[in-house]
Amino acid sequence: MSDLPFRPFADDAAVRRVGERLLARTLPRPEWTHEAHLAACLYLLTERPDIDVDARIGDTIRTYNASVGGVNDDTQGYHDTITHASVAGVRAFLKTQPSGGLADRVNALLGSATGRRDWLLRFYSPERLFSVAARRAFVPPDLAPLP
């Protein structure tokens, strides 16, 4: 068992599998973890130039959630602000890790401040981030600008 505060990816193929299974809506729901969210984002940004992540990520996640029996409403499922702020964070992280293996970069992301589950609370108050308005559409941060 790992001493890391996250579950690292063993290799590039494992990261690609998460990204492709998200797109195909075949990723088992228990595998849609915090780590998988960030891995899929990094994969899409670095290996799928055919996909406009900013334009498509919302529909991709919403349709995936529905395909595995999830609900996208005001209290659960897709969260627009968390998603788009996380994409911004992954993009900023990639500027510091422009090369290297896919799994190496994902694992570095997960081990960084940006990869922490509470990272967005540096920029958002809990009240704002977890509001219905923030779930429905992107809202700008109220504590500090996103990177």
What does this structure look like?
It is a single chain. The protein has 147 residues and is mainly α. The chain has one domain (12-136). The chain contains seven helices and no strands. The protein has helices at 12-24, 34-47, 53-67, 80-96, 102-111, 126-129, 132-136.
Quick structural overview:
The chain is mainly α and 147 residues long. The protein has helices at 12-24, 34-47, 53-67, 80-96, 102-111, 126-129, 132-136. It is built from seven helices and no strands.
Outline: globular
Distance between the termini: 33 Å
Number of domains: 1
The number of strands is 0
Secondary-structure element series: HHHHHHH
Roughly what is the average pLDDT, rounded to an integer?
Answer: 95
In angstroms, what is the radius of gyration?
15 Å
Number of helices: 7
Residue share in helix: 40-55%
Low-confidence stretches: none
Biggest sheet features: none
Q: Strand content of the residues, in percent? A: under 5%
* SSE class: mainly alpha
